[in-house]
Amino acid sequence: MITRSEGFVQSRVQSRTQPRAQISTQTIGNSGCWQEQLAGAITSPEQLLAMVQLSPELLSPALKASREFPLRVPRAYIHRMELGNPHDPLLRQVLPVGEECQHIEGYGLDPLAEQSQNPTDGVIHKYHGRLLLIVSGACAVNCRFCFRRHFPYQDNRLDRDSWRNAIEYIRADTTIKEVILSGGDPLANSDRRLANIAAELNAIDHVATLRIHTRLPVVIPDRVTDELINWFARQRLQPVMVIHANHANEIDDRVGQAMFRLKQAGVTLLNQAVLLKGVNDSASALIQLGEVLFKAGVLPYYLHLLDPVHGAAHFDVPDVKATRLIKEVMAHCPGYLVPRLVREIPGRPGKTWVS
Ligand SMILES: *Cc1c(COP(=O)(O)O)cnc(C)c1O
Ligand code: SF4
Question: CA–CA separation, 345 vs 165, rounded Å?
Fold first, then answer.
């Protein structure tokens, strides 16, 4: 197994031997190994606005809102945005805006009351048969609508001690058939750490499925490394990956290739999206998303109604409109391309289907 630093060196050597045209993409940050791309993510609103050629007028509200929840977006994702378009559906998901600072009735800091469902640090167990392990506090991208934007990851990350407790908890409860790695983004961990996590879960007989909820392969498709692919192919646990894309423009060729490799390695691929005003709140956007995903080997799984988290109210789509949209999608698409429209209601033993 190669170490992380050897991986860095290898990928640098590879990129040095690439033809000229590709070297120039490195200067804009589309190549380099995934760790470098992750570390090189844009965090300055000024730099983001300059890169997409937008007016500095947007800067002052962006700076203000980024103080509550920082801007963070990898370059590979920015390159899919349309230059000069303040309404670009990808930009809208990551650019902090003034509306985030408004306090809106009903929008709170822990909309799902997850902070009361921690049996042990790093574990969220509220659904029958499935349990969520928070294996990373880090995300590659900070989505402005994230329901965990105020979640206390610091207290909930699995360090060595809490990891032991979490494993004991899973071992002791034979109803747990599926372990879901969540975060943050679980793929922000090294391939080696993921392999260690999986090895421990592998040793628990009643666990049959390993699911990973991740947005990383969408924002940095190079995260799907050979090592990750080999690791999936070796699993006793049946692997499921639920990616997160909200708009068809997020799935470019490189994401498509990454999905193809995962699928070849036997991974069941699903997508969850959030219904977001100004991003995907039209039947055509949803239909196109489903079609593009399917082409990449991914089926639409959930379409979430926005969780009422402070700072995200400007993304809200009313239920009436949401159900109308999903009916339109149903009228146009085969059933397997229609996502389940769901809402998370605190305390319920599963997601609640709407309509
Ligand atoms: C969505 C979710 C799951 C998984 O639910 P499925 O319906 O199996 O996809 C598990 N835990 C939490 C906290 C969730 O939000
Ligand atoms: S990648 Fe997922 S967990 Fe991370 S900020 Fe975006 S929505 Fe939230």
Answer: 28
pLDDT in tens, 195-222: 999 999 999 999 999 999 999 999 999 9
pLDDT digits (tens, 9 = 90+) for 6-46: 332 233 233 333 333 333 334 444 568 999 999 999 999 99
- Given the structure tokens 């908890």, which residue do they identify? 169
Secondary structure percentages of the chain, helix, strand, coil, to 5: 45, 15, 40
CB under 8 Å to 265, separation ≥6 — which residues?
229, 230, 232, 233, 239
Average pLDDT (287-304) is 98
Selection from 299, 318, 300 nearest residue 308 by Cα? 318
74 touches 220 (CB < 8 A): yes
Count of CB atoms situated within 10 Å of the CB of 91: 22
- Provide φ and ψ at 186, rounded to 5°: -60, -30
CATH superfamily of 114-353: Aldolase class I (3.20.20.70)
Mean pLDDT for the chain overall: 88
Distance 132 CA to ligand 1 centre (A): 8
**Omega before 184 within 30 of 0, i.e. cis:** yes
Dist CA 139 CA 151 (whole Å)? 13
Ligand 2: residue of 69, 95, 143 to mutate (most ligand atoms within 8 A of CB) is 143
Segments of the chain assigned to CATH 3.20.20.70:
114-353
Residues 139-168 pLDDT 10s = 999 999 998 777 655 555 677 888 999 999
In sequence order, what DSSP letters do the residues of 285-312 get, joined into one string? Answer: HHHHHHHHHHHTT-EEEEEEPPP-BTT-
pLDDT level of residue 122 (50, 70, 90 thresholds): confident
The CB of 127 under 6 Å from ligand 1? The reply is yes
Task: Extract the tokens encoding 155.
Answer: 């207290």
pTM of the predicted protein model: 0.88
313 touches ligand 2 (CB under 6 Å): no
